[in-house]
């Protein structure tokens, strides 16, 4: 079993290894004891930890933007230069806001946040530990698992997760192969938004930091309101992800596709074992121009032949917003270093 990647963009390390920025095995964070390192990326570190209070394993995500900060001798996180402090602080607030937002949900296809808190001059999120692998890892090591039925099941579950987010009027905007995990029981889980990465990318004007090439639609490159974002934005990313899973290669960037599209539609490739309706739906979801894609979750489901009973549908929200960030949600004070973490505020979805 390969370690679970619970932080989008991380490289997974064998348990117990990591860079000098990682907390040591055995470190205590309130009731949690670090027992291993699951992954380390440019904006955070994910640990496996044991919750001594509830006697269970959890995943703990630490805000650690390596280009801006490093681990100090007292385990705290310190910025590398004073000029980075404002950017670090805004990313920290976005990290907390995302955790607070996700803590409101209890949906099988959305990552479950148990609690979040501030300590060591940074922030932490304790999440459910999932026994599974990212789609990126599955395609790389067990591509035979990707079948017509597998694709339909994953899409059904992720569409349910997106629909749940939409009840709070929030777009995900970061659906990608390393941001969905498929558990051993076949259930898919949509992971975090990468809000800290996005807000830091915004402040440093680094599109390569913010966007996932091949999965970000053209409207995410516009940088303003000239191209509206909506359900069709996440649909493009999900369809592109499925294209990758089926043909084992990422589609060209949406910018390149605007000029001269080198991506061969799945309907033309006609890979064996996949239904024509599935391939046509993915092609439609990957349309370069927003208006040419399915405009809603329901429209995409209809193309895929997915039927959802009215009793299983969450209550729809109003106008869609982007994922929570320091600029869209005001963070309330969290416990300071050394204080016991408080349970994240939660309310019914």
TrEMBL record:
<dbReference type="InterPro" id="IPR000719">
    <property type="entry name" value="Prot_kinase_dom"/>
</dbReference>
<dbReference type="GO" id="GO:0004674">
    <property type="term" value="F:protein serine/threonine kinase activity"/>
</dbReference>
<keyword id="KW-0723">Serine/threonine-protein kinase</keyword>
<feature type="domain" description="Protein kinase">
    <location>
        <begin position="32"/>
        <end position="306"/>
    </location>
</feature>
<dbReference type="InterPro" id="IPR008266">
    <property type="entry name" value="Tyr_kinase_AS"/>
</dbReference>
<dbReference type="InterPro" id="IPR017441">
    <property type="entry name" value="Protein_kinase_ATP_BS"/>
</dbReference>
<keyword id="KW-0547">Nucleotide-binding</keyword>
<feature type="binding site">
    <location>
        <position position="61"/>
    </location>
    <ligand>
        <name>ATP</name>
    </ligand>
</feature>
<dbReference type="GO" id="GO:0005524">
    <property type="term" value="F:ATP binding"/>
</dbReference>
<keyword id="KW-0418">Kinase</keyword>
<keyword id="KW-0808">Transferase</keyword>
<keyword id="KW-0067">ATP-binding</keyword>
<feature type="region of interest" description="Disordered">
    <location>
        <begin position="313"/>
        <end position="349"/>
    </location>
</feature>
<protein>
    <submittedName>
        <fullName>Serine/threonine protein kinase</fullName>
    </submittedName>
</protein>
<dbReference type="InterPro" id="IPR011009">
    <property type="entry name" value="Kinase-like_dom_sf"/>
</dbReference>
<dbReference type="Pfam" id="PF00069">
    <property type="entry name" value="Pkinase"/>
</dbReference>
<feature type="compositionally biased region" description="Low complexity">
    <location>
        <begin position="334"/>
        <end position="349"/>
    </location>
</feature>
């Amino acid at each position: 079993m390969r370690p679970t990647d619970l932080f989008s963009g991380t490289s997974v390390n064998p348990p117990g290894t990591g860079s000098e920025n990682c907390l040591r095995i055995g470190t205590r964070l309130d009731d949690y004891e670090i027992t291993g390192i699951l992954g380390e990326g440019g904006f955070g570190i994910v640990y496996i930890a044991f919750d001594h209070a509830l006697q269970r394993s959890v995943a703990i995500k630490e805000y650690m933007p390596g280009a801006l900060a490093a681990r100090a001798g007292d385990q705290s996180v310190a910025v590398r230069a004073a000029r980075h402090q404002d950017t670090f602080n805004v990313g920290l607030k976005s990290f907390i806001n995302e955790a607070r937002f996700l803590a409101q949900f209890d949906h099988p296809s959305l990552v479950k946040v148990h609690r979040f808190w501030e300590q060591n001059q940074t922030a932490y999120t304790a999440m459910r530990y999932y026994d599974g692998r990212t789609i990126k890892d599955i395609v790389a090591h067990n591509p035979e698992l990707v079948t017509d039925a597998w694709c339909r099941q994953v899409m059904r579950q992720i569409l349910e997760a997106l629909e749940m987010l939409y009840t709070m009027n929030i777009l995900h905007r970061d659906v990608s192969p390393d941001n969905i995990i498929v558990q051993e029981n076949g259930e898919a889980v949509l992971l975090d938004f990468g809000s800290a990465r996005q807000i830091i990318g915004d402040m440093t004007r680094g599109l390569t930091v913010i966007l996932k090439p091949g999965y970000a639609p053209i409207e995410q490159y516009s940088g303003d309101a000239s191209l509206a974002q909506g359900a069709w934005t996440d649909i493009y990313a999900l369809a592109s992800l499925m294209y990758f899973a089926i043909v084992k290669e990422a589609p060209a960037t949406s910018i390149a596709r605007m000029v001269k599209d080198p991506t061969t539609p799945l309907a033309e490739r006609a890979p064996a074992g996949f239904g024509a309706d599935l391939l046509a739906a993915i092609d439609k979801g990957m349309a370069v121009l927003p208006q040419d894609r399915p405009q809603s979750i329901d429209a995409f489901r209809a193309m895929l032949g997915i039927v959802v009973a009215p009793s299983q549908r969450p209550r729809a929200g109003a106008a869609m917003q982007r994922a929570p960030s320091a600029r869209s949600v005001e963070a309330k004070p969290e416990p300071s270093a050394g204080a016991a973490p408080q349970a994240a505020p939660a309310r019914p979805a």
